[in-house]
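[job 4471] stage=fold_predict status=RUNNING
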Amino acid sequence: MRYLFTFFLLLFSFVLKSQVGSINISVFDEFSKKPLEAIVKIQKRSDSISGIGRIQLDNIPSGSYTFEISSENYNTSYLYDINIIPNQNLSYSVGLNKSEIKSIQEVLITKKTYKTTAESPVSLRNITSEEIQKNAGSNRDISRAILSFPGVGSTATFRNDLFIRGGSSAENKFYIDGIEVPIINHFQTQGASGGPRGIITVDFIKDVDFYSGAFPAKRNGALSSLFEFNLKEARKDKLGYKAIVGLDDLQLMMDGPLSKDQSWSGLFSVRKSNLQLLFKAIGLPFLPSYYDATFKVSKKYKSGDELYFIGLGAIDKFEFNTDAKKTLSNLTLIDRLPVAPQWNYTFGAGYRHLVDNGNWLFTISRNMLDNQATKYYRNIETPENLLFDYNSQEGENKIRIDRNFMLGDFVFSAGTNFNYAKYTNNSTIKSVNQSGLSFDQINSDLKVFQYGFYVQSAHKFFDNKVQLSLGTRFDASTYSQQTDNPFDQFSPRFSLNYKFADRWAFNFNTGIYHALPAYTALGLKLNDVLVNRKTLKYIQNIHYVAGLEYNGKDNLRLTMEGYYKKYKNYPFSLRNQISLANIGADFGVVGSEPLDSRGFGETYGIEFLAQKRTLNNFYGILAYTFGYSKFSDGVGNLLPSSWDSRHILSVSAGKVLPRNWNFSARFRLQSGLPETPYDLIRSASVPIWNINNGPLQDFAKLNSLRGNVAHQLDLRTEKKWVFKKWQFTAYLDIINVYGSKTASNLPVVNLQRDNNDNGVIQNPNASPADQNYLLEVGSQDNNMPIPYFGFIFEF
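[job 4471] inference complete, writing structure tokens
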């Protein structure tokens, strides 16, 4: 042990402060994608370098830097908090937008710290890979980092179920470099978007554009949020390697050139879960494990054209921790959770072709989800105890064509998309609902074709003080006569940006958005009949958003936005008489039941954001949201939805300290979410409990209770050691430091058990149909602190 300690002491003592790295920055016109002549300057240093298209900066001492990129007649842009690693040549790309020309003699060049677009002057936030990795509580997961922004709520500390501005977690869409990726979380809730752990490799992300409204017309199906992931470029000098050995997973990465002329390059990652070891150590009753892989291979042509291939996939497994402490909460989770193996993948290719007036982008992709789940009563695997055996697959083949061009001073984008999908479901399911017991034998084989097309334009008026954007899209599907007319899904949108002072702007957007219900709902087939074909329509959502924006000195941004969203044609459960807008924040499946489209709702609120990107080694975000979310019940009354959190507060801050230390913290507070009480009398029935495996919610009292105020403090610290040809980082991320009370205020309910662990029947002499169990009612366990620590090796 003494010799091992001496070895590490000597190893870390050989830190050479003079170790240097380099960075390669591609600079292009954001609209046309053509290379630009530009100047790159490192902030707080006097030296700068110019070049055309690709600019190389060499011999930069290792450390964190912000790079300023400028070009004549273009708005200045920045790369923030780039970590220069010894003996590595990093690659980044930056698109610049043309500046506002007041006259032939006068050009106003502005420095744009925060991203907005003509289509989305409101509700657009941008977060870089470096900001994600430094964010306390995110543990390098984008879905958790987004919780620092306004309008974003969550349901549990260990899951990525995001509800945005009062909409359900099923209303979010995700794209990577223009290719749609339906699944970004392990253990995906089919028919929604949540899960306990993200799949996307954060080290490969350049930045993420997060839209909570004002969605561009080229993207279909988004109702509450849109995530545009932009991947970084691979390094140009040689193959580089990175390894992360963490308490939660083990990950290996490689990037670099794949050909002698460096025109081919690639990013590659594989990851193996250690999460089951962590969950077992802290005593959780379920042990998830996973594998995932990500890659991007690209070819850059001398003409500026680019061909690229993207792939990511995951395999998820699940088992119970029978050694967990037998608390009432743990026993209840083991009784209710299914064994649910799952796998998924997305493969895609894109080709960007530059022309004299703009560019073309062609993409083609395929994605697949295989979802299985089995559950036996009390986990005793005998035929008579089988509650459900679920086997489902959904696959999609997609083609997109996008074109950017100009007509005079008007900027246009137009395009089309096609999607051929196949959904199968061969399952046996026993369930209990508000109207009684159900025994479904599902045998689904749905094939459906979807298509859409769009056009959008933008122009500036009144000496460039006013910018307007107008667009629309049409969508249709061959699913039924209610979905096959694209004019029924006419989706216009309008945006306004008015700069009434040097640092102030008024922004406005309104739009109509449509989304086809989930395949689980569309494809439900019982007795050889597609049950929902005649009743389901496209979900419609109308947005109104307005706000003020202030861009101050020292990277300070203040925004205030008010929003109103009105829903129509929301899928509605005929068995439980509730809108599916209330479902989606748990393991399992959403939508595989008889439905119609009677649901409607509205959400509205106001958001405040104060954000300061890194300056003088300090960064921070303060976000507050006050809002309402209401959806209809069975008789058409608007009730608080499951996402109706009145107040959401998030405060995040960090400091870069000397000797390569970084410390960050985040505090989040969210007022209690509505909850539906249990019907304990009905739940106690032996026939009902033996199928439901737990208490029943009384949907006649939908969301009539409130959960606890949820709050938690997350901390993160990391330290870097820089060596001659590599870099070593140690990090510690503690989620929910003080172990706050669980957000749910519902009791934990299970059976009173005899010495043989069987449920105690209070009236054993009654007929089997009339027998009732004795129930044990207790309180929820507190959430516990979850520590994540690990080591990062970069070569």
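[job 4471] summary: The domain at 1-101 is CATH 2.60.40.1120 (Immunoglobulin-like).
[job 4471] exit 0
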